[in-house]
Write a structure and sequence with these properties.
Blueprint: H1 2-6, H2 18-28, E1 36-45, H3 51-68, E2 71-77
Amino acid sequence: MQYTQRNGGISPYEVGDSKALFAIRDQARLLRPRFHTIIAQPGLQAGKATREQLLLLAGAEKFVRDTSAGDFTVYCSR
């Protein structure tokens, strides 16, 4: 219930019968998953990040993009 309210009325559940379940299974083979990697670094200040910290984050981003072809976001203090 709370999930549905937080996500604009979208439910995490599908309602249907066995025919609908098999249709979803058949469609799943054609779909490509999307990955979104988010890193929260509240102790890191964007303007004071050292070269080593930036290189580490760049390496993590490269790894994530190469392995999952997904997005990579870092949240830190200003």
